Amino acid sequence: MQVKIQNINIFGTGLGCAKGEKRNKSIFGSGKNMPARHLIIILLLSLNISSLFAQRTQIIEGKIIDKESKMPLQGISVRITDINIGAISDSNGNYRIKNVPVGKHLVVFSYLGYLDVSVPDVLVTSAREVVLPMEMEESAAKMNEVSVTAKREHVNEMALISARTFDVQEVDRYAGSRSDIPRMASNFAGVQGGDDSRNDIIIRGNSPEGVIWRLEDIDIPNPNHFNIPGTTGGPVTILNDKTLANSDFYTGAFPAEFGNGVAGVFDVHLRNGNADRDEFTAQLGFLGTEIAGEGPISKTDGSSFLFTYRYSTLQLFSSLNINIGTASIPNYQDATFKLNFPIGKKCDLTFFGIGGLSDINLIVSTLPDFTPQLYGESDRDQYFTSNTGIIGTSFSYQINSNTYSKIVIAETGNDIIAHHNYVFRDAQYHVDSLKDILGYDYKTSATSAHWFINKKISARHIVQAGIINDLYFINYVDSTRQYPVTRPDWQYRNNFKGYTDLVQAYIQYKYRPSDNVTITAGLHAQYLTHSGSKALEPRVAAKWVLDNSNALSLGYGLHSEALPFYQYFSFVPSASTINPGNAAMLNDKIDFIRSHHIVAGFDHNLSNIFHLKIESYYQYLFDVPIETRYGSSFSALDQGSDYSRNFPDTLKNTGTGYNYGIEFTLSRAFYNGYYFLFTGSVFDSKAKGNDGVYRNTDYNSHYAFNLLGGYEHKLWTNSTLITGIKITYAGGKLYSPPDIAASNAVGDYVPIDNLRNSLEFHPYFRTDIKIGIRINGKKLTHEIALDLVNVFNTQNILSYTYSIPVSGQGQFYYQYQLGFLPLFYYKIDFGFGKNAQ
After folding, report:
1. Strand-pair partners of 236
2. Residue pLDDT, tens place only, 785-827
3. Which of 374-383, 539-548, 734-743 has the lowest mean pLDDT?
4. What is the signed CA dihedral for 180, 185, 186, 189, rounded to 10 degrees?
């Protein structure tokens, strides 16, 4: 029996309508609710119309430092080339440009003996000063030699390939990104999205488990609400783009300072608050109501604060009788802060933190009809809570003009709690009884420290070395009696309380024989105490700038990654018992997954605004954990991207896998009011289990293409129409045919093991459109926008699954992804204090 379901939801959670039933109206439907167009008109009319015509200006300011030594640079010329105004940096590296008209501008930093840096698309609004700090790289050429112009491709000086700096403006610029940083990254070449319910980062066919999340130089737990143990994604991120500085995203062969990951790195940094004046942002949107603020703590020493707080507004919309397409209301809130205290000219002390609280009760026992749950299962009531927090401090010290050091100490924590009650129903779908069948509580905390020192021997030679230590405290409890649900006794899967320590060290060296050639080499080591796993990993990369239009790059890295901790400390199914004291943890000594990764790249500037980038790669994975069970197709490369955990049988490190492909990016920078970005990748991803057969991994969709564009048009002197479009076309998800008899016996979807990932859904296709307006008043900036996600209501299949809606009557059905969803927000920026221009 198959049932076709259409979901209407916000970010994956939702109650669908069975085929033939009356569909839920959107949040902007008619009836008693106010249409969105009326709300937008009222907001527009409430603005000071005279502010639309008087020319507004603002300030661009920042501090300029040497990229390697971090010393302030005096005498740097900072020019806004499109309007030909600028400033010169002072002895502390500070600059300030006044009377900059609102809009987007190109800012160029130049100085004799340093490579020029161009920063396009700098957005200037009337309410907030633009703080634009800059790091400049000293030229390796002699003064009488001709040097090339540098482009700000990435923040990390050691990254030469498969690295991209994402501008925080991109998070809001791209249609369909929903102000979600990981979803924004799915627009990049080599990165797959294709799952509307989650923001997992799938890089070059790798499991998202292999992605490293780093914040302020500290490795952090999954920074998403409603996160599941063993995953790095979720429905909505805790990270708030209003607090972020430009950060780096790596898709392979990353520098030696990063470890415990084989797929990629999100290296995120928080910006400092404005040290000159108080500025605030308030925003009301479908996914949350939030406030952000920043300003000086003391103008004398340049100390500053920055904070944001967001609370989900889904319950508020429900209270207004606005239909959001789900009977279950997700609740979440998050906050971020950073305090920065310069200490003289050589030291800097910061305190930072982020935190998120989330919970949802998916109650199906009150539903009169069978309704699939995109967030969970449709035959049980599910209660879920996840809480995540990071708090830390950093201290940087300028030892001398060529050497600086930094230490970061932080405490991180993650607590995930779930409880399931199975719903027994009669033939008329009436509730017969409830039975508790699953419960778990996973608590993980870590005391982390990262110290490094950076030495600029000369403009040609730079050395960096560091040590990272993460001491994890673990308390895992899990028990189940759901397979089958008639089982009377409990099966223990986790009952562990203890600790483990991950120690990492690295050294890396950068050599620039000329401005056209750069070579980096490094060594990374790591050791995991509970398993005794060790790794020593070389990394090397080179870049050769052939001329002002062409560049070649090549990189290699050996990388290692630990399993999710809950799998080390779980009881294997064959050893589970009602008495956890007699059970055995047979996988606690499993070694790292390891990977050789080689990448080659070519960059070509078609013109000043058009850029083409092509990268090809090959990745060989070995020592992959697979089951010892004869004929098993299980591989640890096939997990980490859904709302369930995986408890394999006894494991061994003899599996292998490979990924290879080619990807390209064609971009047009914002000029004359519009931009576009076209990315594509074609790849193959395979893994081999204990049966000796290479099969498609869960992430082998073979291809993914994105076309993005945007156009901005001035309506009046200080008002701008904002539009954007995104079109995604990707290979369909892979799945395994079910073993019908086994599924009925167990009460869950049981795949045919030797046919793993042999079937494929239809290709994924989605179009998103964004439209909005930005109005710069005298002291306020208003922005109103509407994001039309999946505007054509394309029905993309997420999964083929199984449930027992009526006792003894199981059924298989397709679960569909996000339908058409309009999302709106209204944002207002304002500031206090003197803004001398």
Report:
1. 225
2. 999 999 999 999 988 988 877 666 778 888 888 888 888 899 9
3. 374-383
4. 170
What would the two tokens of residue 70 be? Answer: 């971090």
On the question of a cis peptide bond just before residue 484, with omega within 30 degrees of 0, the verdict is yes
Beta strands (DSSP E) in 426-490 are 431-456, 461-480
Place of tokens 């944002």: 827
Q: Token pair of 477, please?
A: 């409890």
Residue pair 519/510 in contact by the 8 Å Cβ criterion: yes
Nearest CA to 304 out of 331, 279, 269, 267 is that of 279
Please, which residues have CB within 8 angstroms of residue 314's CB and are 6 or more apart in sequence? Answer: 10, 286, 287, 324, 329, 330, 331
Three-state secondary structure along 604-654?
A: EECCCCEEEEEEEEEEEEEEEEEECCCCCCCCCCCCCCCCCCCCCCCEEEE
* DSSP 8-state assignment for residue 302: T
Tens-place pLDDT, residues 644-701:
889 999 999 999 999 999 999 999 988 888 999 999 999 999 999 999 999 999 999 9
Whose tokens are 């409890």? That residue is 477
Backbone angles phi, psi at 745, to 5 degrees: -70, -40
Separation CA 572–CA 492 (nearest Å) = 9
pLDDT of 13 reads 36
**How many whole angstroms separate alpha carbon 508 and alpha carbon 522?**
4
Amino acid at the residue 352 = F
Q: In the structure encoding, which two tokens stand for residue 716, read together?
A: 């009046």
Q: Rounded to whole angstroms, how far apart are CA atoms 480 and 493?
A: 8
Q: What's the rounded Cα separation, in Å, for the pair 451 and 681?
A: 37
Q: In this structure, how many other beta carbons lie within 10 angstroms of the beta carbon of residue 45?
A: 8
**Is the distance from CB of 741 to CB of 789 less than 8 angstroms?**
no
Based on DSSP, count helices (H) and strands (E) in the chain, helices before strands.
Answer: 6, 47
Q: Can the peptide bond before residue 538 be classed as cis, meaning omega within 30 degrees of 0?
A: no
Cα distance between residue 677 and residue 708, in whole Å: 5
